[in-house]
Structure formats: structure tokens, C-alpha cells
Amino acid sequence: MGLKNAIRSVRAAIARRGPPVVGVVRLSGVIGNVMGARTGLTLAEVAGHLEHAFELPNVKCVALAVSSPGGSPVQSALIARRIRSLATEKNIPVVAFVEDAAASGGYWLACAADEIFADESSIVGSIGVVSAGFGFQGLIDRLGVERRLHTAGEKKAMLDPFQPEDPEEVAHLEVLLADIHESFKAMVRERRGKRLRADEAELFTGQFWTGRRALELGLVDGLGDLRATMRSRYGDKVQLRLIGGKEPLWKRLLSRPPGRTGVDAEAVAASLAGAALAWIEERAHWARFGL
Questions:
Q1: Could you say which of 85, 121, 131, 156 is catalytic?
Q2: 122 catalytically annotated
Q3: What CATH architecture does domain 2-287 belong to?
Q4: What b/e sequence results for 43-81 when a residue is b if at least 16 CB atoms lie within 10 Å of its CB, and e otherwise?
């Protein structure tokens, strides 16, 4: 055991004499489970990457490259909580860099950092909660379709898209959305605090802004990109270590279990169909911000 500790000490000493290291973790895409072959941002997906970034030898900072239109509030909270836990445990600062957007849940993730930087044209904000769907009751009437629905529990089928909206059920949904919104606002208040330079009545409406306007509002701390900012802070010899990254879609489609040869055409076709649906779903998230 003594020899192992000695080896660790030697390795740590060697690492300290090396150039400063910044662990870079990309948080890109829709947050939560996405249909088909496209994987959304979840704690299960990024937890290992985050831990690796904080454990790099001679790591001085962990940088989050955020580009997300939002998604699941639960996964947003779980990922943000894990980032803060690791930052506190390792005593390592975290800096977020907004690329295309840190909107809704994407901004929730950015708030897990100690500082937030954005491009002047990034989309930032959308501190709100949305629930969207369709009503199909008129369609099935025109098609002459008889729908049969049986439940145990009078509220089990609430907000059924094939039935007219019930005001009581809509009111219940609004309470749920308000609860989630309060959690989001509490996160922003905790992490941004006195840096916010506008009234909550303006900031927490779900509105979003460019990076330049977000700086004026106190939603971000500066304008700049990851490489230039980290080099300015830690010197030109700083090493930016990208941790993880998604496997290319073509590789996931053509992969096969051990021992199986050839390509399963049906599986590939099903994966492509799923990927197309997921792409449509993801585009719908981005389209809200004109991206």
C-alpha cells in the first residue's frame, strides 16, 4: 500500500510541473430522452464525462461547452446538481461557454457554472416552462373513428388529446408548470444572485435574448469563446482536454453485437426511421429560437 501511495505522489508531482489543464465537457442538444437513435442529454450519459473532467491531472478548471434549447427540467436539475457536487468536492472552478444557445434547461445547465460566457449572438434565457400538445377530438369525429377508453381512477386519463379540454385539468397542469418554474427561478437566484441586473418580472417571463443583451441583464458574466478565454486566464500553454463526445450516428447504426457478422438491414432501417423522428423532435425544440 505504501508503494502505491508513493507512486501516486510521484505522478501528482510530475503533473503539477506540467502545463495547466482545462477539462472540457460538451453539453449539446436537447435535454432528456429523445426518440430513436439520437441520444439526448441525460445524467446517465454525461456523469462519467463530468467525473473524468474533474479528475484530470493538473486540472485547473472545468469548462462546459453549452449548446442546448432545453428539454427535461428533471434531467437539467440532475446534471446541474452533479456539476455543483463535483465542483465543491474537488474545489475546482467551473466556467460555462454558451455556443448557439443556453435556453430554458440549457440555461439551467449554464447556471451550474461559477461564471458564464457567451458569444454576442448566442441565445440566452427562456427562464420558463412550457407544455405543448395537440387536440384530436375533431379529427376522429370527421374520420368516423370510435375511441374506447377505460380507466380505474377518475383522473387517470386527464388531458387526453382525444377529448375536449377540461378547465379543471388545465388548471391542474398550470399548477404543475408553476411549481417547476419556481424551481427554475430558485436555481437562477441561487447561482446568479446579485449579478442579475434586471427585475424578475422581466427575467422570468420565458423571454430570451442575445448574448450581448444577456450580459447587460446579468444573465452572463462576459462575452468570449472557450479557447481564447482559457488561454487568457491560464496562458498559451494551457491544454484543453475534451472529454467524451457522441459516437457518430453511422457508427451506431452499423455496430453489431459480438459474434454477429454482416449488417442487419432491418435494424438499420428501423434506426434510420427512429433517427428521422428524433431529428424532427429536436428541430422543433431549436425552431422556437429561430435556430
A1: 156
A2: no
A3: Alpha-Beta Complex (3.90)
A4: bebbeebbeebbebeebbbbbbbbbbbbbbbebbbbbbe
